[in-house]
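2024-03-11 09:14:02 DEBUG pipeline.ingest accepted 1 chain
2024-03-11 09:14:02 DEBUG pipeline.ingest length=345
2024-03-11 09:14:03 DEBUG pipeline.predict start
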Amino acid sequence: MGNQYLSHEEIHKQYISLGQTFDYILENKILIHDFFSEAGDIVFVACGSSYWMSLSAHKTMKMKTGRRAYAVKAGEVILCPEEFKGLYDNPIFVCPSRSGRTRELLDAADILKSLYPGSRVLSVVEYTDNQLGTKSDMTLNISWANEKSVCQTRSFSSLYTACITIAAILGGDWAFIENVKKYIQNAPLLYLKHEAAAREIADASKVNSLVTLGNGLQYGITVEGAYIVVEMAQFNANYFQILEYRHGPIVTARPGTSVFICSGGNEEHERKIAGEIRAAGAKVYTVTPFDVDWVDYAFSMDGFYEKEIIALHFAFVMQSFAYHFAVSLGRDPDNPGNLVRYIMY
């Protein structure tokens, strides 16, 4: 499988963008602290991949800061604005977006600002020329994470890195920040090892269905793991919470099914569900801090990492798989189908 597409480097050298993003957020830690100094709810508003990132990141924000935090789909705000009236107390709206040009997000920001006069907006965006910044009280621009290819890969991972680092700064969790730093330092070797495994697993002749499983604060990243396969390889994929999978969907597990588990440390439950899936003839893979013997292959990170960092590496593994699977299927991972970078209407 060739490496001739732009998205190959954007995925497999994204540790460079992660490092730049991490350093940038730390450089702005005082401004970030000041922006969040007034008490109130923190509401992530996003669409597409950025929403799934937010579904995970808002839980980290809640856990690190002790403040109420939410994740909201911009499309829901547009279609059901009445449902968002009076929900939040002195909110800060956090709007992560690759382009900062998506119509849904721009309109949702206007609606929420009208519902909550005096609320503030923080945008985290990658395009330097964007409309979201004009609606924001503070903008963090991580332009180096933008891709030339269509699908969100390093931009997704960089947005997530930015948001969980912001949460750790606000919560004063410097051990967590050191764990992020450790991962970025170790990522080049992990990427090299795990790309080789992802390439081998992504054999179109052996995969006829795909499922991702995750839980808790990792769940949103798990969903995106399925989405990137759908988008880049133009291949149907599903996602479930780990224990939810046995309540019906497991009947679809069979030879040719590949199931990827983002490990949250609940080994007793993860081992059991993996055993049930493998008994049906499916293959099971997991991203985990340390090697385990109850899956077909463990993408072991060779050391302790926080759940968020395991999820961050899960995103990389699924992006690498999606790339090689797309190539194996004879598809262009840079420009899949009629997918566009952002939706303006």
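2024-03-11 09:14:41 DEBUG pipeline.report The beta strands are 42-46, 69-73, 92-97, 120-125, 138-141, 209-214, 238-241, 257-262, 283-288, 297-300.
2024-03-11 09:14:41 DEBUG pipeline.predict end
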